[in-house]
Amino acid sequence: MDIDFSEINYLVDPCSRTLHADYQQFLLSLTGLTVIDIKGESSNEWRVISTLLHGNEPSGLIAVHRWLTTENSLPQPKANIRIIISSVEAATHQHLFSHRYLPNGVDLNRCFNEEAIRSSKDGENKDIDGYIQRAKLIETAIREVNPRSIIDLHNTSGNGPAFAVSTLISPNVLSLASYFCDTLILSDISIGAMMELDFSCPVVTIECGGSADDQSHEAAYNGIKQFAQCDIRSALPQDKAVQILYKPLRLVIKAQRKLSFSEHDESYSGVTLRKNIEQFNYGGCCEGLLLGWLDDNGLENLEMLNDQGVNVIENYFRMDDNKLVCATSIKIFMASNQTDIVRSDCLFYVVNNVNNHL
Ligand SMILES: [Zn+2]
Asked: How many angstroms separate the alpha carbon of residue 319 from the centre of ligand 1?
């Protein structure tokens, strides 16, 4: 599929015909990177909503479309809202919302740090120039309105409750997170994502939960409504208490090791995770909890690097007989049993389970 990466389409206060009757028809009517501007009460202040950086994560688009079409006329937000719909081609390729990025493409949300993507394995033998160009167009579309806050809406590959991710914590970041969820992860993981760029305003990524879960679309919709209506002359009012979790680590399986999912110990080689691993995205995991099974190589199959690049897996996990269990009380995020995704990214994210309510 040929993509015109230099293309950007603008819609200003679109009419109901342009928005179509449902989000699927609306998405199918778009031809590429699309920016929608909605006029607000205050004409000199802007807020940005980013959606579909990943083509298989529909909650943001579904919620935006619902917000734009739920009344007979367009909503009137407190400030101007710029909505950016990024990976239209991937989202409409073959079945709707089934591709994170196009076959032979690269992950757009790894292309906001040009140097990093060019030197990474992901960029090898692929035409990454177009994706870098699109990332730059998105960055420019954000910078040209000099927004006061930015929300970037995603879904997780497995099911779980919504949570927010930010690279820094401020009262405004906590407020933005509170419109969508009750957990904020402070992350210093650098992967070339949009939220790592400095826009001189809060940038909060919202992982709305699983892509097929109505609850995720609902969380996105309720959050957008509050985001659009809140008054931010001073600090944004916080909607509810938000728990902060500091600096998640990524649990990865080493290359060439086999990864399986099962309800029982099958004596497979490599690593076998419990088939229902996603359920541990909800709530915490206490010390001794069984997460799966390991072959004779034990924890050596896995790796968890801290910010100094030291493998700290033994602080968090241990092997009892051949069982993989938690060595301490932890919280896990984004566990999924979709083998291809967890193998290319990580099995899940881990943080110490300290209760830190602000
Ligand atoms: Zn995503």
From this structure: 32
Q: Does 358 map to a domain?
A: no
- The CATH number linked to 95 is 3.40.630.10
| Of 42, 82, 86, the residue nearest 224 (C-alpha) | 82
Q: Over the stretch 164-207, which tens digit does the pLDDT of each residue have?
A: 999 999 989 999 999 999 999 998 878 899 999 999 999 999 99
Distance, CA of 305 to CA of 293 (rounded, Å): 21
Domain that holds residue 300: 249-352
Q: Residue 3 falls within a domain, yes or no?
A: no
Alpha carbon of 109 to ligand 1 centroid (Å): 8
* CA 73 – ligand 1 centroid, Å: 30
Query: What is the 335 CA–ligand 1 centroid distance (Å)?
Result: 14
Rounded to the nearest whole angstrom, what is the distance from the C-alpha of residue 58 to the centroid of ligand 1?
10
Looking at the structure of the chain, the number of domains it has is 2
CA atoms within 13 A on the CB side of 328: 11
